[in-house]
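Example record used in the benchmark description.
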Amino acid sequence: MFAQETGVKIGNTTWATRNVDMPGTFAENSWDAGMFYQWNSTTAYPATGTVTGWNSSWNGGFETPSENDKWTNNICPEGWTLPTTAQIDELLTFKGNLADNWIQQYGVQGRQFVDGDNVLFFPATGIRLATSGNLSSVGERGTYWSAEAGGANSARFLQFYSNEASRYGDDRARGYCVRCVKEGNVGINTISVDTENAVVTGYFDMLGRQLQEEPKQGFYIIRYSNGTAKKVMR
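Model output (structure tokens):
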């Protein structure tokens, strides 16, 4: 029986400490790759060896893929879901010193993300290539899907190497790992525009930190008494 997953909070988001293994389950350890998935698929592919039944023409399961598609087949355990691109962008804010944060855990290379005393490790799991399903770049590259498309036939993901970590968009038919976030996180990802008849309760920066007064320029968030929020650019 694996330990219960409580997650690690980085910024406003609680991230799972382990990758998704079979749908609805986490891997045993933070350094385990878990399973590979094509974007929005529930078919799990192993982190070692070759695969059979690989779908090189997978388009996310949408008859006509578009840039507005969302991951609909949640493979995360109950109470968890795939991250948005905003949550990945927030995570990248806490990547720290790149040279120091490329580390090894139990013989597995990967990247740490650090927010104060909170530390999160992602193993460099590599990828499964879209055309063949073959493994590539294991121990050199980490790739983790987001819940959002990045254009027709592509989707957005977190990618890192030993000297770089960024968000990209690429072929939905590729096999990447999945790292879940806690459902119901309060932050810039719960923004709405339903602010009618509500009173302003505070101003916050894009990382969710409360401001003393409303900014005169830049991006910020206004929160309201009815629980909604609005992102503003001045």
